[in-house]
Amino acid sequence: MGNGASYLELTEAEWQEKIKRAQAHLKECRLCPRECAVDRTTAKGVCRAGAQAVVASFGPHFGEESVLVGSWGSGTIFFAHCNLRCVFCQNYQLSLLGQGSPVHSEQLATIMLIIQDRYRCPNINLVTPIHFIPQILEALWIAAQRGLHIPLVYNCGGYERVEVLRILEGVVDIYMPDLKYASAEQAHRYSQAADYFQQARLALKEMDRQVGGLKLNRAGVAQRGLLIRHLLLPGGLEDTKQVLEFIGSELSPDCLVNLMDQYYPCYQASDYPELSRRVSREEFRAAADYAQQLGLRLA
What we know:
Blueprint: H1 12-23, E1 53-61, H2 66-69, E2 74-79, H3 92-95, E3 101-103, H4 105-117, E4 124-127, H5 133-145, E5 152-156, H6 162-167, E6 174-177, H7 184-191, H8 196-211, E7 215-216, E8 222-231, H9 237-250, E9 256-260, H10 281-293, E10 297-298
Parallel strand pairs: 2-4, 4-5, 5-6, 6-8, 8-9, 9-10
Antiparallel strand pairs: 1-2, 1-3, 7-8
Helix pairs in contact: 1-5, 4-5, 9-10
């Protein structure tokens, strides 16, 4: 398998059609399941994003999954703002407080090329990108004309619209959703999104349809496919089992699952007694054992 990105196969007409469809949301934003319909050229959506993309930081990241890191680190671009309101968010300064600097599409394209050419990263890793898809597509088109060729990672919270994901078909190589909950009660209590799993389930099935299971190149670096993260919450074992059952029964068997144990009380988590501790070893071991029983391909 080569190292070329899917977007290199798009014609100029296909690029322009995708950009046009995405940019229509800036006048009446329905990019995410909240469908706030705000005119983002003059105001800000529920996610607090406006007309310009806001970048908090960018560069090689060695804390991502090994299949993304390679020798030079995954080329992360951290965007500000988020369509979820997770009370335990570990990146709350960016996603909830909006830390970052506005960038034009030309600047964002330059960032992508720096990641590829200066840092030699094996991919462009877009962190929390849903609300900036119009700006990202425009920047990606510019960067591709200037020689960008590495795969694109769509690193998201899972709260996506299928209709919008279809705009990204043929653009994104690797989808990496963080599938947070199966429980509507937990999703509402912790992220203000009671329909989270209803939307995420459809979104992940669409991602799977587009890219299938995770495929690696000869160096062991991901080139295309679906990589799912799930963060086990304290006391959340039963919900985690439901998440894992969905993955095992409805998605490609060779998608990669990263079951994560690095939860710690952060942001507003201390206001929720059940979230005020770390996950125990016993809880995580039970979750990992269940994933293995289901035959999941674990990272």
